[in-house]
Design brief:
The chain is α/β, with parallel strands linked by helices and about 160 residues long. Helix content is about 45%, strand content about 10%. The protein has helices at about 10-15, 20-35, 45-50, 70-80, 90-105, 120-130; strands spanning about 5, 40, 65, 110-115, 135-140. The longest helix has 16 residues, at about 90-105.
């Protein structure tokens, strides 16, 4: 079953109509609600969002709030232990991204919705390549794609 974990960059784009990827974020949100696809909202992303904007500005009733628990911490520690972090990537950013990845793994979340190609998506791919995760990253910059809700199946053109 498809389920989405939203990261902070998704939430920022979703909440701000002036952002370049707001339309894609809003489309994924609406489609997930219409199809009853779970949208997980990590306490980690909540704390990051709260720095610039009140998290209560978001439609929280539509998300499954995901606290960071002991199992998540253990998984994040194991992933961090095996991670070869790029020196140019800020350690604090990578640590939070790995925590989100660990939550997705522990909760069997299949997809991560993000704008973050440079750290989150990059490290998800590294963990996937190493056989440690099987997450799929959906980048808002690529626009809305209904195929993510259909196990990757594209529609028939012209129908």
């Amino acid at each position: 079953m498809t389920a989405f974990l939203v990261d902070t960059s998704f939430l920022i784009s979703f909440a701000d109509p002036a952002r370049p990827h707001h339309v894609a974020a809003a489309a994924y949100f609406r489609e997930a609600l219409q199809r009853d696809v779970p949208l997980y909202f990590s306490a980690i992303a909540a704390s990051e969002f709260q720095v610039k904007q009140a998290v209560t500005d978001l439609p929280l009733r539509n998300f499954i709030v995901l606290p960071f628990n002991f199992d998540h911490a253990m998984t994040a520690g194991l992933l961090m232990r095996q991670l070869d972090r790029d020196p140019s990537d800020r350690r604090d950013v990578v640590k939070d991204d790995v925590k989100l990845i660990a939550q997705a793994v522990c909760e069997s979340v299949s997809h991560v919705l993000t704008e973050d190609r440079h750290t989150l998506a990059k490290y998800v791919q590294r963990f996937n390549d190493a056989g440690q995760t099987t997450l799929k990253t959906i980048l808002l910059a690529e626009g809305f794609d209904l195929a993510w809700f259909n196990e990757g199946q594209q529609g028939i053109p012209g129908t």
